Amino acid sequence: MKRSTNFLTTEMREIRDAGREWIHRVLEGPSDTICKVEGKEVIMLCSNNYLGLSNHPKMKEAAIEAIRTHGVGSGSVRAISGNMDLHEQWEKRLAKFKEQEAAFITSAGFAANQGVIQQLAPTTNDVVLSDRLNHGSIIDGVRTTKAMRAVYEHCDMTSLEDELTKLTKENPRRILVITDGVFSMDGDHAPLGDIYKICESYNNAIIYVDDAHGDGVLGRDYSGKGLVDHYGLQGKVHIEMGTFSKAFGTMGGSIVGSQELITWCRNKTRSYLLSASHPPATAAASIKALDLIEHEEPNLVKKLWDNINYFKDQIINMGYNHEITSASTTAIIPIIFGDPLKAKEASNLLYSEYSIFALPIVFPMVPRGLDRIRVQANAALTKEQLNEGLRAFEEVGKRLKVF
To answer: How many structural domains compose the chain?
Structure first.
């Protein structure tokens, strides 16, 4: 029996030797700007908690009150007996925030992509046309379909139109055009306005945007309503997917769009129908997050952008001026080291000598030669904390001869 699992040891040795093993450090307390990681106080520079909401006192108060009134669990999937009033309020509040007709909450963003994509393109007469750099959850969602698959070059609108022209000759039933809103490794965003203009002339084209990293970050006038709002395309982009686990500080995937879409999702999505609903505390805290962004602390998104622009400009000016770093247009700031072992060494030095927590992202999550540390900005970081991080990156960059 042992021989049948010997491959586990062999493959893990290969992963470690290549510098690709994920080491899970332990967070001992809340995700905040200053965290305790394995007994050491550090400045957090690699969290999705873009608006600093995951430990916000009003979020905690809302969660505690929900536990008092609704308990700690829902007891079932929503289609049976787990559909609480808080879940309904959460979806209505999200739809209002997004300026869409309706919203639909799933257990996680991954579950939204995996469950909804497979139902949108379920037959061999359907086509999924995907940006080459789309997130792994999109890729896995596409793998569960029976649809034909095609790829257009990253954010290349000529490539998108060429692929649509070729695919139309096959006379598919529908073409599902899928893109990340914000690309999570590089931090650039999809040209959604151009995608809409191109797809508008194809009657069977459906646009699906995964805006997990755009929620709470992008939007007109620092609204935080995401990429669809950034381009003013509410009611025109067919399916907008998002998550609450990033800028909104809680947990859960979302789909927003027409009422017809949401009713259809409730009846077709197995990752929703077969998963227990969120704890009441999560629903209540998520509603409070939207209230904070839109009404109670409307400058949160602007604070985030002040920190993004300051940190990114300083990083580029000190010598981390790779074209990928410069091309980021969001809270994700990729700092390129070009070698997995060097990126890991930089991360270890930042942690051990400078009390900066920023983790490496290496092949195969990014292409070979583009191994990096991915810094993620946070609205709650002070200028002093940002400057500590910048000083550390400058000294580590010089020590490792990055510039």
So the answer is: 2
Name 372's bridge partners. Answer: 336, 361
CATH of the domain at 371: 3.90.1150.10
Per-residue confidence (pLDDT) for residue 1, from 0 to 100: 56
Q: Which of 184, 254, 271, 347 is catalytic?
A: 184
User: Among 308, 315, 312, 310, which residue's Cα sits nearest to residue 393?
Assistant: 315
Average pLDDT, the chain: 96
pLDDT category, 4, cuts 50, 70, 90?
Answer: confident
Domain that holds residue 127: 57-296
Q: What angle do CA 58, 243, 386 make, to 5 degrees?
A: 65
Beta strand residue intervals within 20-173, DSSP E: 34-37, 40-44, 102-106, 126-131, 148-152
The pTM for the full model equals 0.95
Based on the residue annotation, tell me whether 246 is a catalytic residue of this protein: yes
**Does the active-site annotation cover 277?**
no
| Termini Cα distance of the chain | 51
Q: By three-state DSSP, how is residue 28 classified?
A: coil
278 catalytic residue (yes or no): no
Q: Which of 213, 278, 303, 344 is catalytic?
A: 213
Burial call 183-202: b when 16+ CB within 10 Å, e when fewer? bbbbbbbbbbeebbebbeeb
**Judgement on whether residues 311 and 233 belong to the same structural domain of the protein:** no
Burial group, residue 272, by CB count within 10 angstroms (0-12, 13-18, 19+):
buried
